[in-house]
Amino acid sequence: PRPQRLPDKLEIRKEGVKKFIGVGFSWGHTPLKFFEMKHPGKITQLVLLECGVKTWPPMDQTTREAIYLAQMKWTTVNKTPVVTPQIDAEYYEIAKYFMEFPNWLLANMNYYWLDQDACQPYPWNIPILGIWRTMDPATEMIMKQHFPGVKINLIGGQYHVIQWFQADIVNQLIDDFMEDRPGRRW
Length: 186
What we know:
Helices cover about 45% and strands about 10% of the residues. The protein is an alpha/beta fold. A four-stranded parallel β-sheet has the order 1-2-3-4, with helices on both faces. β1 (about 20-25), α2 (about 30-40) and β2 (about 45-50) form a beta-alpha-beta unit. α3 (about 60-70) packs antiparallel against α7 (about 105-115).
């Protein structure tokens, strides 16, 4: 089976949201970029949490399709190593949701994260905050190319989900960055 793009439903219209601050974790910047491409100007600021970008081509098409097919067949056994590193019990309970996450959706997300359009820089012209544990000079250059004007913050730590394990630092950086506050109508 070939992955299908999900229909472009704009539920935020239904809720009356005119503009919002986009927050992307890990792969999360990609759907936000595609959203901005289809609906320019709705995202007023962008927050990147420990995200990574792939540059084109990330791999050949045969490999990309093989990864898709393998993820479609994932079982709990395949997913367990991703969830079970030394995570505090409180966070492990949240992370276990990954075990139930639908394979077709995970495979689709990964497939399109490796798409040519997803792996190209986008000319963002909004304030962008980036929060990472660490970053080498080559990665910093790629991030600045993909997210023009990004304000990079390195906070250390050992886990990918920095918003869980270093919430006090992450939340303060986001709070200081936001030009608007939640609950205010546009």
